[in-house]
Amino acid sequence: MDEQRIKRVxxxxxxxxxMFIHWGLYAIPARESRSxxxxxxxxxxxxxxxxxxxxxxxxxxxxxxxxxxxxxxGMKYAVLTTKHHDGFCLFDSQYTDYKATNTPAGxxxxxxxxxxxxxxxxxxxxxxxxxxxxHPDYPAYNDAHHPMRGNEAYKHQGEHFERxxxxxxxxxxxLLTNYGKIDIMWFDFHYDEMTGEKWDATKLxxxxxxxxxxxxxxxRIGGDIKVDEPVYYAGDFGSPEQMIPANGVxxxxxNPIPWETCMTLNDNWGYSERDTNYKSAKNVIRMLVECxxxxxxxxxxxxxxxxxxxxxxxxxILKDVGKWMKKNGESIYKCGIAHYPKPEWGRITRxxxxxxxxLIDLNQDTIAMPNFPYKxxxxxxxxxxxxxxxxxxxxxGSYEGENIVFVHTPPFPSLDDADTVIKLYIEK
Length: 428
Ligand code: GLC
Prior knowledge:
By secondary structure, this protein is of the alpha/beta class.
């Protein structure tokens, strides 16, 4: 991957933790394991789906509250679904009537989101689905995902796909010009022959970068970012979904490249009434630490309900994560790979002048790290600032080998259930 891309995506990588927001008409059926895919999974026709459009009225929508919550959780960037696969636009596009403005909501919901998150100092990202199950020129009959796949009546739909591509380009231009400087465009996704130049991708990305040369773009338009010189539209970061890769994300030569894991907080992206399978704050903290230690980001999803509220369980978890982040955030932001093997008691992240030891699975009250590649000046527990002794037992060398860094860990009863962080000040 080239320097230019790595530089461009750095501001997002420094922030490490983001909020993904999946919100749209699908919050009304609120169906578990269907969620934003309900039209495809249940083969819902446009006519049947119209009932949700007719009543979409998120009276509690308060993006300032969302932004405050993201901030409290320690999230430093956000991405909102401006249009998902169902084609419904949360923004006031001049190219369609299928938008929030024409529902009882009666206004541009993206504008309020952008303003609110920007006001909190959160980087603003927009998700835009390349798929569109509402547009009359999107292929249906032979498509792998379209709700009307296999339906004879839709055999000819898609013959004028170029009209859809024009629509997609027009909407992206609107999103990038009508809301001030957008930081991240999160396109989703490519499959079969629906990839790359099928979306007229070079032209699309050229247009986007003309509007904003700093725009950060994900890797889901098509192309491969793991090669030395990715195609122009290949994007700036990898986007593993619902998993944290064992070794982070590397190019084909084995060098780490920027990436972000996107993850649901329960099992669905969109709001789902019955999905209570939430991850705990502890899970989230550990995932975030894992991503950071492997050089990647975590963008964690919330699915607001049809009234516009982020579910209470999600709010509680995010606030708990925020409590930990308040004390330990410096071991996450602007931190990354420590270039030391993963220890048995936890993980390590590397900051500019410090290395952070994340005690996750500690069984004794000392740790020894042989052949540690840093010279350590001082060890301190992050959440209370207490100094930790580095005195070595007299015979440690006989058993642990060379260049040992030895640290006495905090007392067991005081360990944080999720992760206790030790800051090692290092000599540069
Ligand atoms: C997907 C899904 C989707 C979700 C997303 C998030 O590929 O189609 O519904 O928005 O990725 O990463």
